[in-house]
Amino acid sequence: MNIYDALKRDHDHHRDLMARIIQTEGDSEERRELFKRLLLDVEAHAAAEEQTLYSELIESVKGQPQTRHSVTEHKEASDLLEELKTSDMSSPGWLITFKKFKENLEHHMTEEENDVFSISQEVIEKDRAKELATKFAGRKEVEGEMLEK
């Protein structure tokens, strides 16, 4: 497995969780549990991704613009998650904000899979991409543990 496989696997998991959340109603136990899982995984994923893939890409002139753009999108997603955490899940506004978050995150993931992966495959050697997958998994676990505290 390389970093791209690891990230894509997470993206697919995030897409699945978001689709399942959209199917829930009100302030239900199911919505709360799915949102908690999504929140923790997306935040841990973004932090680990920045510390592994993006930290390598930013060192390359070719990778800098897309890396900056992607990190900005991480911040926007994090801000929306923070808003969702503090909003009433039973209000129509929560679902509106969630749909905005979902749309933004899906855009980001697609852009990453198409643009960022292409650029990084030119900049990062295949063996290094495999090493980064291992580093990513370790960082994501640590980030997840910190978020759960």
Topology, element by element:
Elements: H1 3-22, H2 29-57, H3 64-85, H4 92-123, H5 126-148
Describe the structure.
The structure is a single chain. The chain is mainly α. The chain has one domain. The chain is built from five helices and no strands. It has helices spanning 3-22, 29-57, 64-85, 92-123, 126-148. The radius of gyration is 16 Å and the shape is elongated.
State the major sheet. Answer: none
Shape: elongated
Gyration radius, in Å: 16 Å
Q: Tally of extended strands? A: 0
Which assembly state applies to the chains in this document?
single chain
Write down the domain tally.
1
Q: How many DSSP H or I helices?
A: 5
* Helix fraction by DSSP (H/I, runs of at least 4): over 70%
Question: Structural class per helix/strand content?
Answer: mainly alpha
Q: Give the integer mean of the pLDDT values.
A: 95
Beta-strand fraction estimate: under 5%
Low-confidence stretches: none
> Helix-strand pattern, N to C?
HHHHH
- Could you give the distance between the termini? 30 Å
